[in-house]
Amino acid sequence: MARVTDPRPGEDECALDGQLSVLEAGVYRSLIGVAEACREIAQRADARGLTACSIRARLLASDVASRLGEPAQGRAEQLALHAAAAAWPALARRAAMYLASSCDRLGHRVEAIRWAQESVCPDEQTELPAWHAEALMVAALFSVSRDGADYGLVDQAMAAVGAACDPILEATTAANFAEVASECGELVYATHYADLAEAVMRRHPEAASALSWESVARARLAASELAAAEHAMKESLRLEQHLGCCDVNGDPWLSFAEVLLARGDPPGAMAMLEHPRRTARGATSAWTNTRDLRVRSSVLAALQRWEEAYEHMVLYAAAYERSRSIESLRVIRSLFVIQVVDESADHDQHQ
Fold it and tell me: What is the rounded CA–CA span in Å between residue 74 and residue 192?
């Protein structure tokens, strides 16, 4: 279906849905004023008895909280809203997509993958084009970040994003794929998607964001294109001044520090790590915290501050192992639950 609310909505409902569609795409560029707008829309929807519209607005507000550094709060709200959206399957899948992102920011990767899989509608004709494209993007991101990734899903997601005709979503999706491909060492894919993201942002400056340029820079850095990486980071920080950062999983100052270190400028890298705007931002995620320890250790070593470098490397190793242990335990528990369910089903069939 093309909508998540009643098949014959009134004029007010159409207007609220339209405002939410703009806000849902806009969060990939800037979070300024989004939560406030969502709360106002939710209040207006509640006053008109538009329950699905209210849930949709509250879901987006919870995503903003998660993006700003409160993923545990966002996850709790999203779980409640996922249950409340049971009567609207498309809306429940939307809640699952937000849950996948919140769990990822918390470092709960197995749970994030489960929610991402639930968010994808098997019949795209019944889904809003932008929602279908976003859900595919999130599911594909988790697929690419695992060994033996199937880039067929990535191509499917890019096709859906193109069909949605939203430059912000297109630039964000291509930039995200460029970054995760570079993390997997898939430099041909990383360069391809970085080129695509950069082309979209040049054609549509209104679609450019600090974190999309950061992702492009990380892909360029992985390919040892240091001048291009530095240019992308300058664009990223220029936009950050006006738009802010739209997700705690992004950290342009940290990425610029990596670029400057690769260019042989450890003092400049340390200045980025201690940049006043980075310090003032405060919010971090499990992923950026771990990255910070690794990068800071390398910068300190380049500055010949050996003892501090060693201390940070020890902290990084502990954080990395802790993350791996937590995820391994979750996998074991997940497999155990699946086994119990399967055995229960087999038992019932033989009764």
Answer: 33
Quote the crossing angle between the two packed helices 252-262 and 226-243, to the nearest 10°: 160
Tell me 205's DSSP state: G
Model confidence over 288-314: pLDDT tens digits?
888 899 999 999 999 999 999 899 888
pTM: 0.84
Say how far apart CA 238 and CA 190 lie, in whole Å.
23
Kindly report, residue by residue over 20-77, the tens digit of the pLDDT.
999 999 999 999 999 999 999 999 999 999 999 999 999 999 999 999 999 999 999 9
Q: Where are the domains of the chain?
A: 1-119
Q: Is the dihedral of CA 245, 247, 253, 256 positive or negative?
A: negative
What is the DSSP secondary-structure string of 52-77?
A: HHHHHHHHHHHHHHHHTT-HHHHHHH
Taking alpha carbons only, the member of 116, 107, 97 closest to residue 329 is 107
- CATH number, span 1-119: 1.25.40
**Residue 153: which residues within 8 A CB-CB, separation 6 or more?**
136, 139, 140, 143
